[in-house]
Amino acid sequence: MSASGALLSTVEPRPRPNWYLLSYDPTNVFARILRGEVPADVLHEDDHCLAFRDVAPQAPTHFLVIPKREIASLSDAGPEDAGLLGHLLVTAAKVARDLGIAEGGSRVVINDGAGAGQTVFHLHVHVLAGRPLTWPPG
């Protein structure tokens, strides 16, 4: 549920081309958040995505932006997802501005697959800010 108590929109199912690397698991925690089965501290919601605070923050400010479309990982996104992928980044920038962290800088991360640290297989964008972020990460 959102902070206002309204149920969030459901995940948008879609047919899978044969090149998809992962099958989408509709029981993953982000799909459950989208269905309102798991609470979240929602920062933004629109027809295409949801932004909420990470429950295990790695920085003083750490939020996620997830699509409402079933996409397991960035590698599973296709050409038809280009607009949505851009929308996720524009939304990340908007929420950063709304939280007052844009001017100080933030790190935007997409972990793509288990080998890169992805643990929830629903595409998501991390935005971290509020502490020095060294390079290279990890």
Termini Cα gap: 33 Å
How many strands, what sense, and barrel or not for the largest sheet?
5 strands, antiparallel
Strand order of the largest sheet: 1-2-3-5-4
CATH architecture: 2-Layer Sandwich
SSE pattern? HEEEHEE
Q: Give the quaternary arrangement of the chains.
A: single chain
What is the residue-averaged pLDDT?
89
The strand count comes to 5
Tag the structure with descriptive keywords.
138 residues, HIT family, subunit A, five-stranded antiparallel beta sheet, 5 strands
Question: What this model shows, in words?
Answer:
The structure is a single chain. The protein has a five-stranded antiparallel sheet with strand order 1-2-3-5-4, with helices on one face. The chain has helices at 29-34, 82-99; strands at residues 42-45, 49-53, 61-67, 107-109, 125-129. β2 (49-53) and β3 (61-67) form a beta hairpin. It is α+β, with helices and mostly antiparallel strands and 138 residues long. Helices cover 17% and strands 17% of the residues. It is globular and about 35 Å long. The chain has one domain (29-129): HIT family, subunit A.
